[in-house]
Design a protein that fits this description.
This protein is an all-alpha fold. The chain is 81% helix and 0% strand. It has one domain (4-96). The protein has helices at residues 4-46, 61-96. Helix 1 packs antiparallel against helix 2.
């Protein structure tokens, strides 16, 4: 068993890195949302639709499907990564304690 000082350092190191990972995942999702918004904007510009009339409704069905599936897959991947880190966290605390 490691001494309490090393355990404390390990806990602090792990906690800081886990928060960094979750924040990074949120930034990835935000970047994906920005990419979706810019895709919609570019579609509207290419088809001569004014920016105030531009919305998800003006897109063709295949592009809508691609965006919706992409968002669902992105959320699924983020959820799975979060679950993996939760399991690692539980495993880590069992070892440290």
């Amino acid at each position: 068993m490691k001494n309490p000082i090393e355990n404390k350092k390990l806990r602090e190191f792990y906690q800081v890195n886990v928060y960094k990972i979750f924040i990074t995942l949120l930034f990835f999702y935000a970047a994906y949302s920005i990419a979706v918004t810019s895709t919609i904007s570019m579609y509207c510009l290419d088809h001569g639709i004014e920016w105030w009339k531009c919305s998800f409704d003006v897109l063709n069905p295949s592009l809508k499907l691609q965006i919706v599936v992409g968002m669902i897959v992105t959320l699924f991947v983020i959820y799975n990564i979060a679950c993996v880190f939760y399991k690692i966290r539980r495993w880590f605390w069992r070892i440290v304690k």
